[in-house]
Specification:
alpha/beta
């Protein structure tokens, strides 16, 4: 009991930016929904939901989300999937905090950053906050390789070193 409230409080207080300078909190299903919705409510910012393809009404922006080696092994699923968000749900050039439960391989966050870019939200206007990070899976390295190396990533917990 109280775990979500504690985690939300930690996300809010450990944030190194200025909440007043951000326009929205974004999250990708499903793990990020829990933390991002509680955080957005607590700091009074709109919540931007990024969903699997086919769950939102048009107009939408969509990108391919490649499978990670972890999800491919766990779910025996190596197909590419798409993620999407409503077009113009936040203004062009908005500042967004992306909240997710885990940063491991970086595939999900890489797709989220690509999607935000397609929606005219620049990488320099994005900060990522994750509850747990697993550096052994080289997620930050993948984000650097995809051109997102300058993104500010803040992790509450880091397992196995950084």
């Amino acid at each position: 009991p109280g775990g979500l409230a504690l985690c939300t409080s930690l996300l809010q207080t450990h944030f190194t930016g200025d909440w007043a300078k951000f326009d929205a909190v974004a999250c990708c299903e499903a793990g990020g929904f829990v933390y991002a919705s509680a955080l957005a409510s607590r700091i009074d910012l709109p919540l931007l939901l990024i969903r699997e393809a086919g769950k939102l009404l048009p107009p939408i922006v969509s990108v391919i989300k490649p499978p990670s080696h972890i999800s491919s092994l766990a779910f025996n699923d190596s197909k590419e999937k798409r993620i999407e968000m409503e077009r113009d749900v936040v203004p062009r050039g908005a500042s967004v905090v992306v909240v997710d439960d885990v940063l491991s391989t970086g595939e999900t966050l890489g797709a989220v950053l690509q999607l935000l870019d397609e929606a005219s939200i620049r990488a320099e206007d994005v900060i990522i906050m994750v509850v747990a990070e697993f550096p052994v899976h080289h997620g930050r390295e993948l984000l650097r390789q995809r051109g997102f190396g300058r993104i500010n990533i803040q992790s509450l917990l880091v397992f196995g070193g950084a």
